[in-house]
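SEQUENCE-TO-STRUCTURE ENTRY
===========================

Subject: a protein chain together with a token-level encoding of how that chain folds.

Sequence line: the amino acid chain in single-letter code, read from start to end.

Question of interest: how does this chain fold, as expressed in backbone structure tokens?
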Amino acid sequence: MRHYVIFILLTLLFALFLFQLSPVSSEQFKVLVVRIEGTVKVATSNVVREALEYAVANGYDVLLITIDTTGGLLSATFEIVDAIEHSQIPVIVYVYPSGGKSWSAGTFILLASHVAAMAPYTLIGSCQPVSYSPLGDSEPIKDEKTINALTAYITERARIHGRNETAAKLFVIQNLNLNEELALKYGVIDVVASEIDELLVKIDGRYVKVLGQSVVLNTKGAVVHHYEQSLRTMLLNIISDPIVASLAFLIGLYALIFGISAPGHLAEIIGVFLLMLGLIGLGFNVNIAALLLLVIGAVLMIAEAYTPGFGVLGGSGFLFMIVGSLLLIPSGSAQWLVSEDFYKVFFAAIVSSVLVIGGFTLFAVYKVVKARRQKPLLKDMINEIVYVVDELGPDKHGFVKYSGEYWMAKSQTTIKSGSKALVIGKEGHILIVKSLEENN
């Protein structure tokens, strides 16, 4: 019996040993998908950074960027490339869907990725930079210094990932374009796939270098989630549109000039607001601009308390603070090293504070407007009875009380404190009263 028990124990230990050696993973591979489409701009770089932070903070193994763009800002492109190269997890860039393109800025991003992929009937290339002016047409930049710098930059990205350096150079100096078949043939990309699921199957088992470390992609059967943009990024996406940003900057500049030259029309407030939005859209630091909006908003709301008006300053300050709050607070909890639940509470507290302050301001404005629309109180006080607080006389002024309010009053005759009097007129801010006993 003893030998039988020993045999069973040895068998269980051997099975446990084999289980430890088996390649079965306790956690399924997770992929986070984020979308880039349209013009690459300030909001685009924010989306990529937020998605990377979210992926790292929530245990994702890969970030997959699907892209369909005609190009965009060089500054935003460099920020995205920098984020990819400093990422703690592999980043796959996939020109998708079929019929899409990844020209100019999109090609820079594609060549900087750990895995470059294209869907059928897609195009990449045309990387020569152009200058954009809201008052004129776009023109290609032929400055030798700029061209050489961008050529070296994109070639180095290709060299880092073992891709075709000659093709990378021609993308800039000759505006070379390649479809997915030629790009794969010439070693510009790594794989061609029709859909995301097919792409994950094809790259399964591939090794990539991430921050100098070799990482294997176990993407077959991986869990795929799609990243949703934050409210902050949606707002940035609107104001960073090149047309919107340029118009906001120009209108804001002219409004500010008009407001300074002809004060009293509040054009300067509108001008500052539009100028700040325009600067953000054109690439100015978002956090600095958001702080300026908050400071200006606070100043306007304080000025409302000391300036007679109908709440325009307070309402403008409220708008400044709301926009500044949305733009200032980052959307990824990874930057704060706190849990996502704590971040949500923090975000709600900031926005709620601004709403409470704004609501208080609006309530105060309502009260002011209501008071100004009331009938003159003095006309209604004539022939009204007041209570004498201080003794009154021909040479002795004192206070009387009417409907809970204290008024300065005088009388031609002596009226003792605690008695009642009748309002018969007013001189300046002083009521003229007489004793009720004089009517008897």
Remarks:
- The first strand starts at residue 30 and ends at 40.
- Residues 30-229 form a domain with the 2-enoyl-CoA Hydratase; Chain A, domain 1 fold (CATH 3.90.226.10).
- The chain has three domains: 30-229, 232-373, 378-439.
